[in-house]
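User: Study the fold:
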Amino acid sequence: MKNVRFLFKCLFILGFFYSFSLQSQVQQGHSNNNKFRQLYDQFADPNRYHNASGAPGVDYYQQKVDYEMEIELDDVNSRLYGEEIITYKNNSPDQLQYLWLQLDQNIRKKNAPNLDKNGFTDSGFEQSNSLVSNYLNDPFEGGFNIDWVHDSNGKNLPFTINQTMMRVDLPQAISPGDSYLFKIKWWYNINDHVDKRGRSGFEYFPKDGNKAYVIAQFFPRLCVYNDVEGWQNYQFWGNGEFALEFGNYKVNITVPSDHIMEATGTLQNPKELLTSEQYKRFLVSEKSYNKPVLIVNQDEAIKKESSFSKKKSTWRFEALNVRDFGFATSRKFIWERQAVQVGAQRVMAVSLYPKEGNPLWEEYSTKAVVQTLKTYSKFTFDYPYPKAVSVHAKNQGMEYPMICWNYGRPDEYGNYSERTKFGMISVIIHEVGHNYFPMIVNSDERQWGWMDEGLDTFVQYLTEQDFGINYPESITSLDKYPSRRGDPEKIVPYMAGDQDFISPIMSNPENVYKLGPNAYAKPATALNILRETIMGRKTFDHAFKTYAKRWMFKHPTPEDFFRSMEDASATDLDWFWRGWFYSTDVVDIGVKNVKKIYFSDKPDLKAKQNLIQYEEYLKNNNAYKAENLDKMVFIIDEESESFDPNWANKSPISRSKKLQNDINSNVKIPKYSYEVEFEKPGGLVMPLIVKYSYADGSSDRVTYPVQLWRKNDVSVKKVIFSNKELIGVTIDPDLETADVNLKNNSWPKQKTTSEFEKFKAKIKG
């Protein structure tokens, strides 16, 4: 019995170790890491506010905020005073106990946290002017000074200021469907925007002692309240721009009487502000569709530069269904207007600039505005506002409803480079284009900078190309307009850069190292690739216009854009959004190997997925005569219904007969056969665009769909049959995919000289 027990113990121990050995051989599982998996893990769930198609849901709502303002500009002391009446309409299903307002000017307060948000420059040095401005000058006395907040009866309302946000506490909650009226009085010192590149302020001209003002973010503005964020009261740190509600504006602005002004909205009293001659020109301009009409010309503007009137005039503007308000004013301004037909509406294209902008601005500014209105309307919706204004301001590029400020200045002698010219045209197109994104398609810039900057830069690229076609004299000897952003190859240096300093597009604009490439260039490039290479222009354009029209005068989210593009195109783009927008992966696809295929009568059925490399021995056209058919191997799929398991046992004669039967059935055996293996070191999956070049000088271009990578994210193979000898394979021949490594894009690979060979040659020399 003892021996039996001992035997059982041994067997048990052996069994245990055998079982353990088997378990140790079992591979560990993993979650779904396929590049084509559904994007549900990143998307917010659809709901009754933002539905699954990417359209506004049945319960979608947004608040409405109307403003009436009395503004006065103190030109001598560079100070702005204001009072506003705000009517807030609560269209949400929630009770609102308090209201949050933005106080963006507070980033200019002496002790604003914004001043210390960044450390010292990583390079260890700064330019002297920057060092003085940032550390040695006395701090600017900026920021809002709130005199009071009153209810409709003039009673004080308690308010609390937290950096750039102000909370107004209400005596009782605003119920769904109700409105609330209150008033605010404030003032602030206007900054010199040339110093530290402020988004608004004045530029001082020492030669004539004048200032040109571009004024924005100048009044306490209501934050957005919605189903996504609740109160969107993320602090303003300087990069993330604005999330604002739509409403109607009545704004009266008092300035010196010799000033000329443009602003958001329609001017209500031009006749009382302009001379009789200027007013005639003003009326003529509204019917001038071929060229601008100068309301105030350069000679008249120069004459006023020395007037410094002590009288005042009030310019009255009204604007319907806008999300913000801005204005520009100076006695230095030249003023021109031109009518543009956009759909069924006449729109005024307007330029406002000092003499320092000429001759560049009088030549190109209004042309750029006109082209922007036409091209953007073609790709989105007809421009709904009565005008679009381009204002010249040094070092500026900033947008507000119907008005924007733009850089581009000749030297003091009126000379300018091509770079200055194209930079000026491009910034005007970009900033006027912001009327569409986000002034009308009103995305949350504070959270998602790319939703306005990236989409705008994409349509900017399309508009620039149209500008080059419609104004060929502007591009002189160039083949096309030299767009700075949009072409795939131009994003490569950024995408191929140091990953420690690159963020996904889906990042808050305050948290990225390089906002220009991240929020402007990369999304614009991605959409250009999506249009040209992946979806095709017709399909893409329909989907893009669908998104734009769905979200006119509403607040879309990133998911609304992604879903609308797929919903309107029947194109699965989860892989694209994940790769381009949610990751910092790069495109790198190469040719790994090219092998010739030969035929033999000894097929290796077990290696059905591996083609056989051979040394060519069929040297002439007779190689494929019937008597040689028994030397050929056939790549057979064992899972195919037509597979004959006895194929290998058949005699060469019977195989030859079968092949001859296939030939008689119109199956043609090509002269050359190749296996081409493609590799993908980069993380991004993309369509595989290949140019096959042949010995006779001809070539074929083939685009394999992105789904080629679904089951092997590392490498894929393709078999090429041809009656022409293959001598070259090139991936992405036209640089359509932003491939960061072109060294592996061709076969045969270019011979390179090693460092050792260079050294030997140097020694010999």
Remarks:
- The two ends are 90 Å apart (CA to CA).
- The longest strand covers residues 64-74.
